Amino acid sequence: MKDFRFPEAWPFDFGAYLRKARESRGLRVADVAERSGGNIAGASVSVIERGLLQGGPSLRQLEGFSKAFGIPAIYLFALAYMSDKELDPATVDKVWNEFVVDHIGAQDEKRAAVPVPRQHLELLDLTQDNLRFYSLRKAGLLSAEATRQGYVTECDIVAVDPEGDVHPGSSMVGWWQEQEKLLVYRHNIDVASVLIPAQAAGEPYLILNNVKTLKRLGVVIWRCGPAPER
């Protein structure tokens, strides 16, 4: 997959990445503006490449670069979001609503949205190919213990190691067939009568009578999404 190479280190220069993508395609700044479908002005391309745009590029501008370069918008968003210049909150929220896949499958899209740092993979002796990726948004639930821990949120895409070593307290992902939902729980802490907090005001809480009934998908090794609230 062209351009699906993850940066050597985080944070990195997102503007320089865009400039390299443009130059590798033999495009001028004006060409990018023309191919963007009206989403980016030529002057804005130069400003973004030099990292001078306050608050980072907008969702519309990222869509423009996506059209101009043929790179999925969710991948460009992930790179911009993980760089040292955060996108504005409205753009972040809109992307997670519109671009994040909400069901099991479509691994390439979600893989692109969760750029796990190379150093972390090396520490765990893993590669991207070892991992599976799941979107919790709309298709995910968190146990009360996982919610209390605050490591994962219901808006995340998570990178999961299906064969990873599991320790007491590890954040796990399982498939709850009865509810047709992903469930994040904590190994050896959630063992029976797992309580799942209400998803909205006025809704009842859910109870899973036995965590062993879940199809275990693996241990969470990385997350990507809005920062967990403390």
Shape: elongated
CATH class of the largest domain: Mainly Beta
Q: What's the pLDDT, averaged over the residues?
A: 78
Number of strands: 8
- Provide the number of structural domains: 2
Helix segment tally: 9
Broad structural category: alpha+beta
What kind of sheet is the major sheet?
6 strands, mixed
Helix content bin: 25-40%
User: What string gives the helices and strands in order?
Assistant: HHHHHHHHEEHEEEEEE
Strand content: 15-25%
The CATH topology of the largest domain is given as Umud Fragment, subunit A
CATH hierarchy: architecture of the largest domain: Ribbon
Unreliable segments of 5+ consecutive residues: 1-10, 100-105
How does this model look, in words?
The chain has helices at 14-24, 29-35, 42-49, 59-69, 73-82, 89-98, 107-113, 118-123, 144-149, and strands spanning 132-135, 140-142, 157-161, 171-176, 181-186, 192-196, 206-210, 215-224. The protein has two domains: 14-98, 434 Repressor (Amino-terminal Domain) (Orthogonal Bundle); 107-224, Umud Fragment, subunit A (Ribbon), CATH 2.10.109. With 230 residues, the chain is α+β, with helices and mostly antiparallel strands. Helix 2 packs across helix 3 and helix 5 (73-82) packs parallel to helix 7. The radius of gyration is 19 Å and the shape is elongated. It has nine helices and eight strands. Residues 1-10 and 100-105 have low confidence and may be disordered. Helix content is 33%, strand content 19%. A hairpin with a 4-residue loop joins strand 4 and strand 5. The strands form two sheets. The protein has a six-stranded mixed β-sheet with strand order 1-3-8-4-5-2. A two-stranded antiparallel ribbon has the order 6-7.
